[in-house]
Design brief:
Elements: H1 2-5, H2 10-16, H3 20-33, E1 52-56, E2 59-62, H4 71-102, H5 112-134, H6 138-153, E3 163-164, E4 174-175, H7 178-185, H8 188-213, E5 220-225, H9 229-246, H10 250-254, E6 255-260, H11 262-277, H12 280-285, H13 287-294, H14 300-310, E7 317-320, E8 323-326, H15 329-340, H16 353-357, E9 363-365, E10 369-370, E11 376-378, E12 401-403, H17 404-407, H18 418-424, E13 435-437, E14 439-440, E15 443-446, H19 456-465, H20 467-473, E16 477-485, H21 499-512, H22 514-527, E17 536-544, H23 559-568, H24 572-585
Parallel strand pairs: 3-13, 4-14, 5-6, 5-16, 6-9, 11-12, 16-17
Antiparallel strand pairs: 1-2, 7-8, 10-15, 13-15
Length: 590
């Protein structure tokens, strides 16, 4: 519209410039932009004339000289374009406001790629304003403005908005320091109470598992599911469906605990809710519907909120349990997750206390990372003091694991929304905001995969804590690993480094081998466990055998990627692992 409606012919403008309407327009332009004494109107001393340009896709044409044009007329044309550009920028800002107000309506939400493209336009617009006004000083002034904004925002909260866990009270601030953490997490009485509490849960689990496995000493099953966005959510959920179907429902009756990171825990949480509210026959009938729900897009609305609200405006709010929260992309993620899963997960953490205690459903332990000090925030409906070990004497370090329900007892920890717990465990950097907690000083949490992408640390600490009970009451432990990628694979590339590689590899190597380092640590924990006479079998299901196999690490999947995930389960490796699991549980294949 702009290029069709604006002046394309310099002589057309020249012929019309004396008309009344043109005079009125130029008086407006002059009023806004063309006062010659404006300090930002200084002209450069040198004019640079391009020599050649693309006149078509296949033709390069020499530029004609422009000295014969009236320079005042050329300046008028540029000023007219500046006016048009300013109107465009005003329209763009108004469109952002309108979209931010209407983003609850589906027809307004655009794809994530378009959202980031729109965001880039806004950023480019701001930069060009600086260049239009300050010319060669633009870069220096932009840098100074950024430094000033960073300095002002530090300690004042200017241009900042903390994301919160919905349902958690922020009116009371909990002290967070080494003295408080040691007193709370190294309390011997609390340790004994928690151990006794979980023995009761294990006794109830044994009754159910013994019936499912037809033995007095059943195998205790622990599920570890890795992170990996929506692909891991779908992969974990699909595997739990298949294991449930192949064992006629007895697998989940044998499962005692589920832990892990990010997307894998989302898929597991959804299946756990379906399991607790449906019959085996209903799960089979609606299998494809449930799988389609968990694999639905979570990215588009989050990206749209990021572009149209979170970065520049941040004005939409809502009230939940008497607390006021910002409707940022964290809220949008939870809202879309509830919509995709038919609101099955729209509960509080406290809603799971009784079902877990009665062993009606497996325990679920979330462990997002506290980025201020690297500790893990253990979130579950039950107490877990023993995850810091069972011997607190001569501890040289403070506790590694901080229990959510104990630390935030005064903040109504059990009233926190379950989707907020899931989100804290799945906070992918920048896509979702890190979550601030009501502590003094304030701490923030992010994805559990930063510390333990597979849940192995939690699993082994649990097994070691109850090894005596397990030796007496079970025939061993079965760890079912639902993995996003294979444990081991060949080195990528031929080992030859270019000059650029030698510069970038020292930094990129840390991130590139991050998960591989966690693999080695996880294997070491299992291999060097201190549980003598307690068999531990590991069943490993793998989505990608090689890192070169491409399934997007995102909150969005294409139909081809969904088909690839379902097809992967049928490969020889995964089918052999399923048969091993069935044999270990002593159940017949259905």
């Amino acid at each position: 519209m702009y290029f069709f409606k604006t002046n394309l012919d310099i002589f057309k403008l020249k012929r019309r410039k004396n008309k009344k309407e043109r005079k009125n327009l130029y008086s407006l332009v002059n009023t806004l932009f063309t006062r010659e004494k404006y300090w930002f109107q200084a002209q450069p001393r040198h004019t640079y004339q391009p020599s050649y340009y693309f006149s078509s896709l296949k033709k390069i044409t020499r530029a004609r000289p422009s000295e014969h044009y009236d320079r005042k007329l050329i300046r008028d044309i540029f000023r007219q374009n500046h006016l048009n550009a300013s109107l465009f920028e005003i329209g763009l800002v108004l469109s952002f406001l309108a979209m931010g107000l209407l983003q609850d309506f589906e027809y307004v939400v655009i794809p994530s790629g378009a959202s980031f493209f729109l965001l880039s336009t806004i950023i480019l617009m701001v930069i060009t304003i600086f260049y239009s006004w300050f010319k060669g000083w633009a870069i220096s002034i932009i840098v100074m403005v950024l430094i000033a904004l960073n300095y002002i925002s530090s300690g004042t909260g200017f241009l900042q908005s903390d994301n919160r866990a919905y349902g958690l009270s922020y009116t009371v601030k909990t002290p967070y320091n080494l003295e408080v953490l040691k007193a709370q997490q190294h309390d011997v009485n609390e340790l004994q109470n928690d151990l006794s509490h979980h023995i009761q849960i294990l006794d109830k689990w044994k009754e159910k598992a013994s019936e499912a496995q037809h033995t007095d000493k059943p195998k205790l099953v622990i599920v570890n599911c890795s992170g990996g966005g929506i692909r891991s959510a779908m992969w974990t959920h699909y595997l739990l469906q298949e294991m449930d179907e192949r064992t006629a429902g007895s697998f989940f009756n044998s499962a005692h605990m589920i832990t892990g990171a990010s997307g894998g825990m989302i898929g597991a949480a959804y299946f756990r809710e379906i399991y607790s509210t449906t019959s085996f026959e209903e799960r089979l009938t609606k299998k494809e519907t449930y799988l389609d729900n968990i694999s639905k897009d979570l990215l588009n609305k989050v990206a749209f909120n990021l572009a149209a609200h979170d970065i520049f405006l941040r004005y939409r709010k809502f009230v939940y349990n008497g607390e006021k929260y910002l409707k940022d992309r964290g809220f949008t993620f939870e809202e879309q997750l509830n919509k995709n899963t038919d609101n099955l997960l729209d509960k509080s953490l406290g809603d799971f206390v009784t079902p877990e205690f009665n062993s009606e459903i497996p325990l679920m332990i979330y462990s997002p990372t506290i980025i201020n000090d690297g500790r893990r925030l253990i979130i579950g409906a039950q107490p877990y003091a023993f995850l810091n070990g069972t011997n607190f004497e001569n501890k040289g370090l403070g506790p590694e694991n901080i229990e959510f329900i104990k630390l935030f007892g005064r903040n109504h920890a059990l009233e926190v929304k379950y989707t907020s717990v899931i989100r804290m465990n799945s906070t992918f950097p920048y896509i979702l905001p890190m979550v601030s907690m009501p502590t003094t000083p304030e701490i923030h949490v992010m994805d559990a995969g930063i510390r333990d992408n597979y849940g192995t640390k939690t699993t082994m600490r649990y097994v070691v804590s109850f090894q005596e009970w397990l030796k007496e009451n079970t025939s061993g432990v079965v760890i079912v690993e639902i993995r996003d990628i294979n444990k081991d694979y060949d080195m990528a590339g031929n080992g030859e480094f270019s000059l650029f590689d030698r510069i970038t590899k020292p930094a990129s190597n840390f991130y590139g081998n991050f998960y591989q380092s966690q693999e080695f640590n996880s294997n070491e924990l299992i291999e060097n466990n201190s549980c003598e006479n307690l068999p531990i079998d590991v069943i490993t299901f793998v989505l990608r055998k090689d890192p070169e196999e491409k399934i997007a690490l995102s909150w969005h999947l294409t139909q081809r990627e969904k088909n690839d995930i379902k097809r992967t389960f049928q490969n020889e490796w995964n089918q052999n692992e399923l048969n091993k699991l069935i044999e270990l549980l002593n159940t017949s294949s259905q």
